Amino acid sequence: MPKILIVDDDPCIRLLLEQILEELVDEGVELITADNGEVALDIIRREIPEIVFLDVMMPKMNGFDVCNAVKNELHIEGLTIVMLTVRGQKVDKQRGMAVGADRYMTKPFNPEEILDVAREILRL
Fold first, then answer.
1. Phi and psi (nearest 5°) for 75?
2. Could you tell me if residue 90 is inside a domain?
3. CA triple 73-118-95, angle to 5 deg
4. Dihedral sign, Cα of residue 27, residue 23, residue 120, residue 12
5. pLDDT digits (tens, 9 = 90+) for 94-123
6. What contacts 20, CB < 8 A, 6 or more positions away?
7. Considering its fold, how many domains does the chain have in total?
8. Are 36 and 60 in contact (CB under 8 A)?
């Protein structure tokens, strides 16, 4: 069963992403959430999701550090990290890509685009 991990410290954003992606549950996708980077990294190690929608600015461990750990320390194959953040400056995007993000999207986001990205990555 493919898994999508939603990581954001804002409960409203987590809920919104769950609502956007919930139609994929009918197609056999499991949705998992985390409210900070430390919890996310633990879930990633245990569950190895196919997609992580990852916020940047979070307590305990920011998204850049989580992404770096997953891509450059754990070297988990087949995991796509989509940075999803309000930090839309060119330097932020460059930093995200430098630590291994596969995609970089800014908030506010288009719900259809989120769903399309997930479908494309999961080949649904």
1. 50, 50
2. yes
3. 40
4. negative
5. 888 899 999 999 888 999 999 999 999 999
6. 111, 114, 115
7. 1
8. yes
- Domain membership flag for residue 124: no
User: Tell me, what's the pLDDT at 91?
Assistant: 82
Task: Say what the pLDDT of residue 89 is.
Answer: 79
Closest CA to 6 of 70, 63, 91: 63
The answer to whether position 105 is within a domain reads: yes
Distance CA 8, CA 35 (A): 5
Q: What is the CATH number of the domain that holds 14?
A: 3.40.50.2300
Determine, yes or no, domain membership for 121: no
Under-70 pLDDT residues of the chain: 88
pLDDT at 61: 94
pLDDT at 6: 98
Q: How far apart are CA 34 and CA 7, in angstroms?
A: 5
Q: For 96-115, what is the HEC assignment?
A: HHHCCCCEEEECCCCHHHHH
Domain limits for position 66:
3-115
- What is the Cβ-side half-sphere exposure of residue 64, based on CA atoms within 13 angstroms? 11
Closest CA to 21 of 121, 86, 118: 118
